Amino acid sequence: SGLQASGKQFIIRFFKYYTLLVNRATASCLFLLLPILLLAFCVPIDTEDNYTLDCNAASYKDGVFITENNAVLQSEELRLQAKCVTYSKEQDLLHAEKNVLLQYQGRVFVAEKVIYHFATKTLELFHGKTYFFPFYVAAKYLLIDSEGKCSAQGAALNSSEIDRGYWNIQADTVTFATNSLQLSCQGVSLQL
Asked: End-to-end alpha-carbon separation of the chain, Å?
């Protein structure tokens, strides 16, 4: 069964108190208090944004939350799924790696690695790809700002899901918005 925590502050508090309970448990009767503690900390915390993190096995130590057993982070406009997820409270960053699937403002991305900056609501994608009709846009680096503007560095556009189709349009920079059909390219070359 998965573990669900709402609000990134709640995630930190839950794991901190759960770890304290487990580390200081001297008798099995203390574990009977766990459901009561969970109810006490499940009260929604007023934060600017509400995030939900579902995961199976996770650990929390020194302000860092880690799971290597699949996790899904969700908010109103974001869904991020990955095999490995690390959240640093100090840096307020979430790193997702291995089989990353991102749904953001109506657009779907896949990537090797994603970094989400909670404070600025920006996303960094490494070796990412998305479909932008009629092209697949693959890039070594994609930056998505809070308004949904995407800037791709080292990009290739083609009509195939695979990395190299029958033809590629290489571009130094590709810019587009998640909610728009307008695409602009700089430093363009065609490979057949």
From this structure: 49
Alpha helices by DSSP H, listed for the chain, are 8-24, 34-41
How confident is the chain (192 residues) per 10-residue block, as mean pLDDT? 41 41 41 41 44 80 85 88 90 92 90 93 93 85 91 87 74 83 82 74
CB 36 within 8 A of CB 45: no
Q: How many CA atoms lie within 13 A of 1 on its CB side?
A: 2
Residue 71: which residues within 8 A CB-CB, separation 6 or more?
A: 53, 54, 55, 56, 58, 81, 82, 85, 96
Total residues belonging to the chain? 192
Q: Which residues in 10-49 are b (16+ Cβ under 10 Å) and which e?
A: bbbebbbbbeeeeeeeeeeeeeeeeeeeeeeeeeeeeeee
Of 5, 171, 175, residue with least CA distance to 87:
5
Q: Give the closest residue to 58 by CA, choosing from 86, 100, 81.
A: 86
| pTM attached to this predicted model | 0.72
